[in-house]
Amino acid sequence: MARKVGGRTTSSVDPRVVRTRNDILRTTLQVLMDEGWDAVTHQHIAQVAGYSKATVYNHWRSRADLIRDAFLRLRDMPHHVPTGDLRTDLIQEVTTFRTGMDERPLARALCVLVNLTDAAPELDEVRDRLVTDGERLVRELLAPVLHGTELEAATLMLCGAVLHSAMMHGEPPGNDVIASAVDLTLRAIGRN
Question: How far is CA 101 from the centre of its chain?
């Protein structure tokens, strides 16, 4: 909704609309993880979220749009603010990623998303955007000292330490494992 304020036009979004959208998207992700792809219908999501089917249709015309937006909410992961010390910054960023995995259903959601991309290739873009955003700061921190396949390998090792532990062992790595992963990476590139 646009309105005039002090001679300029501003855009404001009704907080109720934001709350409604967030409720529905959170519900969609939960239903998807708990009940599977087939359970994500406008009718079922509306019922579980406590809204009308018309409200869900008003915001998302298709199930694919609804699922896409539910996963894209996960892009709002926090990132560490770099200090200039490579080791500290890498440890803090990987720790921030671990915290995000811990506080959100991120590990489960990513498993579901990876499985869905086989059946719904339109979700490939969503997966790619989540990965790009999740790895962004680690890549930026390492880019001054690594390039090409070495940058790729180091990024995968550091981010993978969290993903592997969370997905395969059922819990994210501890601080000591994160620090060791960073130290091993930095030692391998002669920066530690």
Answer: 9
CATH number at 77-188: 1.10.357.10
CATH architecture of 2-72: Orthogonal Bundle (1.10)
CATH 1.10.357.10 domain extents, the chain: 2-72, 77-188
pLDDT in tens, 122-179: 788 888 888 888 899 999 999 999 999 999 999 999 999 998 898 888 888 999 999 9
The H-assigned helical ranges of the chain are 15-35, 42-49, 53-59, 63-72, 86-103, 106-119, 124-142, 148-168, 175-188
Beta bridge partners of 10: 3
Q: Report how far residue 164's alpha carbon sits from residue 158's, in angstroms, rounded to the nearest whole number.
A: 10
Contacts of 68 (CB under 8 A, 6+ apart): 122, 123, 126
The number of residues in the chain equals 192
Selection from 107, 103, 118 nearest residue 164 by Cα? 107
